[in-house]
């Protein structure tokens, strides 16, 4: 009995499985490596059976056999590559954790619309915002935790960096309670097109959370991804 040669569809299927495994995110890497190993074993079984059951009067074409050996080698290399990627991911996570721990107790500039209004006398919530081009009109709106606008004002009509401090006085004249507030900026240019600003705030990093794949830093306003940290400052600054 002659076993048919491994056709191109089988080879393509193996390549597709490899590509899928290679493109999965970090959380699915181990599962992808397992599935790739299964494909590797299946490929080995098929190739071995093919060699054992060749028709002596019509042996496998040498070119086709060479191509299959190349595919066999590529699958094996892919498994090894995934193992090395797992090692690199682990090293990256360890490095990220070390960097995040060094931020404890220090002031940071965060890409965040959130700021905290304290309860002490003279407390203010502070933000910085910037435009990459000159706006024609700018409205600054401060929202409370429930999403209600408690204060509105006109913003700066120039490009570049600007500071905004809010003393907690609401539009109706009453004093807002201490808590976390959100700055929302609506800006448009002369043609009426929306301009998206960059909003940052300065807060002290009080803790670091390692429960996710990448660390998050904890401030008075909440948790922020490590990628939101724009700068670390001396606490005396």
Task: Give me a quick take on this structure.
The protein has helices at 8-23, 29-52, 62-101; strands at 107-110, 114-117, 125-131, 137-143, 149-154, 160-166, 179-188, 198-204, 207-209, 216-219, 222-225, 229-233.
List the helices and strands and how they pair.
Layout: H1 8-23, H2 29-52, H3 62-101, E1 107-110, E2 114-117, E3 125-131, E4 137-143, E5 149-154, E6 160-166, E7 179-188, E8 198-204, E9 207-209, E10 216-219, E11 222-225, E12 229-233
Antiparallel strand pairs: 1-8, 1-12, 2-7, 3-6, 3-8, 4-5, 4-7, 9-10, 10-11
Helix pairs in contact: 1-2, 1-3, 2-3
Give me the strand/helix succession. HHHEEEEEEEEEEEE
Query: Can you count the helices?
Result: 3
Radius of gyration: 29 Å
C-alpha termini separation? 83 Å
Low-pLDDT runs of 5+ residues are 1-27
Strands of the biggest beta sheet: in what spatial order? 6-3-8-1-12
Count of DSSP strands = 12
Strand content: 25-35%
Task: Summarize the biggest pleated sheet.
Answer: 5 strands, antiparallel
The average pLDDT is 79
Counting helices, strands and paired strands, the structural category is alpha+beta
Helix content: 25-40%
Q: Describe the global form.
A: elongated
What does this structure look like?
A five-stranded antiparallel beta sheet has the order 6-3-8-1-12, with no helix packed on it. A four-stranded antiparallel beta sheet has the order 2-7-4-5, with no helix packed on it. It is built from three helices and twelve strands, in the order H-H-H-E-E-E-E-E-E-E-E-E-E-E-E. The protein is of the alpha+beta class and 237 residues long. The protein is 34% helix and 29% strand. It has helices spanning 8-23, 29-52, 62-101; strands at 107-110, 114-117, 125-131, 137-143, 149-154, 160-166, 179-188, 198-204, 207-209, 216-219, 222-225, 229-233.
